[in-house]
Amino acid sequence: MKRIWLKLATLAVLFLSAPSWASETSPRNCTWCHGTGAQGYAAAPRLAGQRAAYIAAQLRDYAAHIRDNPFSKQYMWGAAANLRPDTVRDLAAYFESLPPKAAQDGRRLLAEKGQAIYVQGIPEANVVACLACHGPGGQGVREIPRLGGMSYFYLKRRLEEWGQGYHSAPGSPMPMVASTLGPSEIEALASYLSYVR
Amino acid sequence: MTILGYHVMLRTVLLAAVLGVALTSPGHADELQAKLAYCKTCHGLSGQGYYGYYTMPRLAGQQPKYIENQLRAFIEHRRKNEIMANVAHALSPSMLSALARHFRDLNPPPLGGGSRGDTATGKRIFEEGLPESNVPACSACHGQDAKGQDQIPRLAGQLPDYFYNKLVNWTAERGQNTSMPDSSAVMGPTSHNLTKSQIGAVAAYVSGLR
């Protein structure tokens, strides 16, 4: 009995001393997986410098079970389940404000080919130029994500998943884009983008 | 009918037959569908336009002759746009014409969005022009319903940001090949005689037209 009271007292102290929004979700909940500087870690993508509108839209899509690739289901459905709208907005703005670092983990030899696809597409094979939507520096805009400097493994997996029938942002042209990309184009794009600063 | 007349007719009939076979063969149909999917990846599944990093214009309901002329303008460097130059260079002349024709029959509602201007001012400029600034009524050429004709483009339902950017940058993007002057010169003086806020107003007005 004594122990329970002690625990409750400790919890109460912790709860009261933390800032009010931290009692719900703080960036620290995110950085456990996304890395302390939010530069990404293993399966979790970099959030630093990502477009706030994109982060917010993804969090809403996790909560609504729209983005349904395996890692999203496994980790993000739960993580985003009980976020208040203002928390979503604050988290998104916080991560956008952090300076992104380029992962530079792609295959250097493929970067040149990847850049050509990114900038020009492959018109003969009906592959569109990525820069039309993601911008000349891979910076993204609004709900269109920043791609420059994200990790090779994340970019490769996401491009593959678009072609595997997983769902994400409704109305996105990405399933159509992915249907025109073969494994070597995906590797080249992911390699190039990992070096973009 | 003269011998020459027969000759011309025979050639026309033969050409039509050859084209007919080429256009209806399954290989060509698949190729066209794949190319259309490629166009619609950026311009929207119904050709309604799309807001990417750059604003991709609405093609739905656009005049085929206008689309064809623009695709050729990208190829001939009359119109400056690196993305579209790459796209257009890979199109055969028959594909180019077939694509241009396809979008005429699409009729999605206007996409809207983008920056907002004063639609009432826009309507007035569109219908009456600005005599004091030497701006003719847009409707005189683009039609009361803004649907264009032949090489004159449809403006109805166009994305306002696209409309605005094109008109503001008109003389820097169009008519860029001095050895091939084209009809884009018609819009040059008007694009300069309109202020940016007047362009925004017309953009807002036409973008809402169906």
Provide the fold topology.
The complex is a heterodimer of chains A (197) and B (210).
Chain A: H1 2-17, H2 27-34, H3 52-63, H4 70-79, H5 85-97, H6 111-120, H7 131-134, H8 152-163, H9 174-178, H10 183-195
Helix pairs in contact in A: 3-5, 6-10, 8-10
Chain B: H1 3-24, H2 26-43, E1 50-51, E2 55-56, H3 64-75, H4 82-89, H5 93-102, H6 119-128, H7 139-142, H8 160-168, H9 170-173, H10 188-193, H11 196-207
Antiparallel strand pairs in B: 1-2
Helix pairs in contact in B: 3-4, 3-5, 6-11, 8-11
Summary tags:
heterodimer, A: 197 residues, mainly alpha, Cytochrome Bc1 Complex, Chain D, domain 2, 10 helices, globular, B: 210 residues, two-stranded antiparallel sheet, 11 helices
Give a verbal description of the structure.
The complex is a heterodimer of chains A (197) and B (210). Chain A has 197 residues and is mainly α. Chain A has 2 domains: 25-97, Cytochrome Bc1 Complex, Chain D, domain 2; 108-195, Orthogonal Bundle (Cytochrome Bc1 Complex, Chain D, domain 2). Helix content of chain A is 52%, strand content 0%. Chain A is built from 10 helices and no strands. Chain A has helices spanning 2-17, 27-34, 52-63, 70-79, 85-97, 111-120, 131-134, 152-163, 174-178, 183-195. The radius of gyration of chain A is 19 Å and the shape is globular. The N and C termini of chain A lie far apart (57 Å). Chain B is mainly α. Chain B has 11 helices and 2 strands. Chain B has helices at 3-24, 26-43, 64-75, 82-89, 93-102, 119-128, 139-142, 160-168, 170-173, 188-193, 196-207; strands at 50-51, 55-56. Chain B has a two-stranded antiparallel sheet with strand order 1-2. The radius of gyration of chain B is 19 Å and the shape is globular. At the A-B interface, helix 7 of A face helix 2, strand 1 and helix 4 of B.
